[in-house]
Design a protein that fits this description.
Homodimer. InterPro entries: NDP_pyrophosphatase, NUDIX_hydrolase-like_dom_sf, NUDIX_hydrolase_dom. The protein has helices spanning 2-6, 17-23, 86-94, 131-143, 200-206, 218-229, 231-241, and strands spanning 13-14, 41-50, 53-62, 65-72, 77-84, 116-119, 121-124, 152-159, 168-176, 194-198. The protein has 242 residues and is α+β, with helices and mostly antiparallel strands. Helix 5 crosses helix 6. The two termini are 27 Å apart. Bound molecules: adenosine-5'-diphosphate-glucose (ADQ).
Length: 242
């Protein structure tokens, strides 16, 4: 059972097939040092004195992010995304070292699929707009649903990786229906995002102990919240439909 669940992302129902095709088309990967003018991360060393002892920590400042757990009430499916995450790929191929590989990565040895995550619809907080408005835009751009901003409901606020980088993470819940589906999703500009769906049973299978995920813990947090707060309501709906 567990084995099946761990591989569950392979069984997700793919919604936007063009996103799925493009996701499998990474043909070259290589690394360079980080230029000092990155718009996305800023490394620094933070010093502090604690109980009279001077200490320091090497940290990376990142932007806040928000994630939206989407449930399609018409299709009775959770709507998720898959995409190639460079940081995940590097984390996997470098193992537990701080090495930056030189030259091109051998894609036969390390297929780009290693860096493909299953995750919630998400975005960076990088605009002068309300969090809910940014979330609404991400739901449209990544998953193709045009929803009113008041259907974006806050669930939790927590922080990402607390050792070296720590962004604020805002988790939202949004119910959508098929009539709000106005586009195929897949992201904007050069984003390559595959939209996938999972049933409540599949989500339940996903969160059992021992599951290994190629992504952020926010996905599991969101699934557990859904199972604790929403699943019984929608299971009852399904039973009544039959
Ligand atoms: N490190 C980087 N280097 C270069 N270009 C980058 C970059 N990060 C983003 N970009 C560019 O910005 C675009 C938009 O990014 P998004 O708003 O979708 O944020 P993302 O989902 O990557 O991360 C958000 O969501 C995830 C959760 O999935 C959070 O962990 C994260 O903090 C939050 O920013 C990307 O398509 C890419 O072009």
């Amino acid at each position: 059972m567990l084995k099946t669940c761990v591989k569950l992302r392979r069984f997700c129902t793919i919604v936007n097939s063009s996103g799925a095709q493009k996701l499998r088309n990474i043909t070259r990967v290589w690394f360079t040092p980080l230029p000092p003018d990155s718009k996305f991360i800023k490394p620094c060393r933070l010093h502090f004195i604690e109980n009279g002892v001077e200490k320091d920590r090497d940290i990376i400042k990142i932007r806040d992010g928000l994630m939206i757990l989407i449930y399609n009430v018409t299709r009775k499916k959770l709507v998720l995304v898959r995409q190639f995450r460079a940081a995940v790929y590097h984390g996997i191929i470098s193992g537990n070292t701080l090495d930056i590989p030189e030259g091109d990565v051998d894609l036969k040895l390390f297929p780009p699929e290693l860096g493909v995550t299953l995750e919630l619809c998400a975005g960076m907080v990088d605009k002068q707009k309300s969090l809910e408005e940014i979330a609404r835009e991400e739901v449209l751009e990544e998953c193709g649903y045009d929803v009113p901003v008041d259907s974006i409901l806050p669930i939790y606020k927590y922080r990402s990786g607390i050792g070296a980088s720590s962004g604020g993470h805002f988790l939202y819940y949004c119910e959508v229906n098929d009539s709000q589906k106005v586009a195929s999703g897949g992201g904007v500009h050069d984003e390559v995002i595959e939209v996938v769906e999972l049933s409540i049973d599949e989500v339940e299978c996903f969160v059992q102990s021992g599951t290994e995920i190629n992504g952020a813990p926010g996905l599991l947090v969101a699934f557990l919240w859904f199972l604790a707060n929403k699943a019984s309501k929608y299971r009852a709906c399904c039973a009544n439909d039959n």
